[in-house]
Each structure stands twice: as C-alpha cells, then as structure tokens.
Amino acid sequence: MPATSIDTFFACSLMVLLVLSAMASTSKLLYPYIDYATDKNTAERYKEFSEYLLLNTGTPANWGESNQTILTSFGLARAGSDVPYELDINKVSRLNNENLFAINYAQMFSALRMPDVSFKIEIKPVFNVKINLTATYTGTNQTVYRFKVLTEKHGAPVASNLKSYTVAENYVETASACALEGEGYLNATLPNTINGVVLLVVFAESTYNDKISSFSTYSFAHNSTPPKPSGTFLKLSPLNYTLTASSVNQATTLSNAYTFTSNYNLALTQTGNSSNSVTYSIPHLADACPMLIVVTGSNSTVFFAEYAAYPQVPLQTGASFEGSEIRSDIFVYAHLVTINSAIYECNVWFGGPRE
Asked: By the 8 A CB rule, do 319 and 347 touch?
C-alpha cells in the first residue's frame, strides 16, 4: 500500500476515534435483547460515568502523587488542566498492578460511589509495535542483529518514524529508520567483548501526528544464556517523577538507570538507597511520548535489564466480566486521552445487574 494511502487511512482512523471520544460512543457487548428504553437509559448512565472518570480529578485532586493519600472520590483528570480528557501521569500509573503504589479495585470501586456498577479501565498506545529478530551477523569484533519492526492498528499498517536504543552492560547504541508502509528495519551492533542480556527499546511516531506514538521492547542474549522474564530481578515503580527500583532477590546489584524517549537518552540520578530498593529522579521531558525507564544490573553472574514505562502503560484494571452474559449488561466506551501531550486510547467497560 502506498505511503499516502496509509497516511490517509490512519488520519481517517484517528478522526473516527476522535468522534468516538467526543460522543463517548457505546457499543453493546452482551445481552442485546433487552427493552430498548431500558437499554438507552442504561447506556446514557454509563456514558456519564465514563466521562466523569476522565473529566474529573477525583478527591483529593492530587491523589496520584502519593500512596499515603486517602482517595475519597475517583477521577483521572490532571488537576489544573483546561484540556478535556487530559489525564494525570501519576493517577494512570497507579492503575497498573505492576506498580508498587497501585490502588486496587476495591479502592476504585468504593471511591466511584456507584455500588451497583462494576467497571474496567484500559489505557494503551493508539497503535501497536511488533519486533522480530530476522538475522544475526557475527564478525571478529562485533555482532550485528537485524530486526523487522511492524507498526499497525487492527492489522492495518501505520506509517511511522522509528527510533531504537540498544541497552547492554555499560553500553547504549541508537538507531533510526522509517516505516512508511508500516514496516521498517533496525540494526543493533554489539561488541563481542560484551556478555549478557540486551534490551532493544523501539519508539514509533506516526508520520501523520507525532503526538501519536507507540513503543515496544525486545530482550535477547548476546554471548550469554537466554534472558529471564521481565520482572525476575526488579520491580520498577515510577511515581511523581521518582523511580523506585525494588529488588526481587537480595543478591541483586544495580549498575545503571536510563530514561528514553524518541528524542532523549538520559542517565538517571540516584536519590536514595535502602536495604531492598533504590530510588532515582525522573526528569520532566517535553517529548509527547511515554518515557521508557531501563535499569541494568546483575544477579550473581547474570546480567539483566529491567524496564517500565512512565506513564505505566499499557494497563488494564478493574472487574472481570467473564461469564457476565448471565448476570449483567456490559457496555464499552472508547475515548482518546492525552497524558503529557501524548495521545492514548482509553476504553472503559461498565456492567451492572439486569433490570
């Protein structure tokens, strides 16, 4: 498909999403055979709930900044913002169950103050990035790894500009490429003197609108044993522009910490150290994309690179509606939201007892 056609397709797709967001449109997922008037009233009520969650700050207005704050009413909007559907980076991060300071569903449910309504929230980039290792070229002094990167939305290609960072022990390399038809190639070149797990971080910015971006990572072995699953060594929890790196194993030794965006590659400054965790200061960056934070270290003789996004997306939290076709009506509402000027997709599910 020509690049112009892809841009046109994505622009049209974005317009559709914007209309969905503005209208808080609803699609009925289950139980389609209820009375029309009841269905319409329920849909309107849930629509208002979804807007309330995304347009109000909650109480207190800065509840996302500290886990010591008691949440009394639930809302995700950024305090002081005059932009509709602008969410707070810390409130969003505290929805992620991987965050040490996450709020649980019971807290959200109680703070929403709607005892007859169950809900689920999903926040994610507007399009997806897929990374595949396609070839390895080993030389005398270095090894080149070639990756195929696909950028797509519901299987349709998204024209984008790619930026990658290859992170190994005391080593960071950058590369750029274009994926004008939703497909691009990136190389990671590593000296053969390095041993250990390597993390490839890839950012993709839409050529149509650079505020629409996505990211992905790929972990692979270089002269070492295969990488362990993410989270094996550290639990990374970004909140209020501070990263808490908590050791899963006491034998862990940390080496470096970095923050990456499409345009920035910065080392983080350590601000604290305790028996099982280290804290780092996260810089305020102007890029309209998520920050990917990477912490490297070793566990005995095993080198690792753990990562987390800030805001900590993609995420999905809330009620499970599995089996709900026999006990509730379920609606989903699609919105576009912004977090630190970057655009994300937010879906909110609501379900309640049948009338």
From this structure: no
pLDDT in tens, 127-173: 999 999 999 999 999 999 999 999 999 999 999 999 999 999 889 99
Rounded to whole angstroms, the Cα distance separating 57 from 334 reads 19
Tokens 């112009």 map to which residue?
4
Alpha helices in 36-121 (DSSP H): 36-55, 89-93, 105-112
Q: Nearest-CA neighbor of 125 among 242, 239, 9, 289?
A: 289
Q: Is residue 116 part of a domain?
A: yes
- Assessment of whether the complete model's pTM goes beyond 0.90: no
Has residue 72 been placed in a domain? Answer: yes
The answer to the question of residue 90 being in a domain is yes
Q: Quote the domain boundaries for residue 31.
A: 3-124+316-353
Per-residue pLDDT at 116: 85
Domain tally for the chain? 1
Q: Give a yes or no: residue 234 inside a domain.
A: no
